[in-house]
Amino acid sequence: MLRNLSFMLNGCLVLSAIFAYSVDKKPITESCLTCMCEALSGCNDTAICVNGACGIFRLTWDQWVDCGRLTLAGESPLSESSFINCANDPHCAADSLQNYMVKYGQDCNNDDKEDCLDYNAIHYMGPFSCRKHMPFNYEHTFKKCIKQVQREEEEKQQQQKQQQEQKQPA
Predict the structure, then answer these.
(1) How far, in Å, CA of 114 to CA of 126, rounded?
(2) Cα 5–chain centre separation
């Protein structure tokens, strides 16, 4: 009986990991992920773990479990290396964060919207502590990156608008 139950549980975990890897809802924008990685690790993609947090997003074991134990293709979520392999793979780690925000996304800064600032706080501080103050250096790096990304996006939009205006006959 216990043997069958163990087999069933293992099978469910494997199936949930297979289906969990296809992340349908992605609340975190690419620019937000870029700034999260910049503030967390400098986007250093060297496979590394620091105090149990791994990869460019410094994903933790608990977050990985909470978001569905995503794995690299063909890997069992029960293998000893599946967490580290996923956390150190930028795509798997980003998809894990997407799932985490689908599950725990909330307005942490009371501005009546759920956005990048909230997702950053949830990831860094945890979903139940996201209203607390973040360390200054981390928050400064993150917000500096966000401002830079916003400036670049605005410049790109202006260039596109100018190009379209030039194409139209006078």
Answers:
(1) 15
(2) 33
Which own/partner contact pairs does 88-92 have at CB distance under 8 Å and 24+ positions apart? 88/47, 88/48, 88/54, 88/55, 89/55, 90/37, 90/45, 90/55, 90/56, 90/57, 92/21
> What does the alpha-carbon distance between residue 34 and residue 57 come to, in Å, rounded to a whole number?
9
What is the per-residue pLDDT for 23? 63
**Residue (of 39, 64, 67, 38) closest to 53 by Cα position:** 64
d(CA 146, CA 149): 5
Lookup: tokens for 134: 């973040």
Sheet holding 49-50, edge to edge: 49-50, 53-54, 59-60
Residues 6+ apart with CB under 8 A from 114: 27, 105, 106, 107
Q: What is the pLDDT of residues 68-82, one digit of tens each?
A: 999 999 999 999 999
Q: Which has more confidence, 128 or 24? A: 128
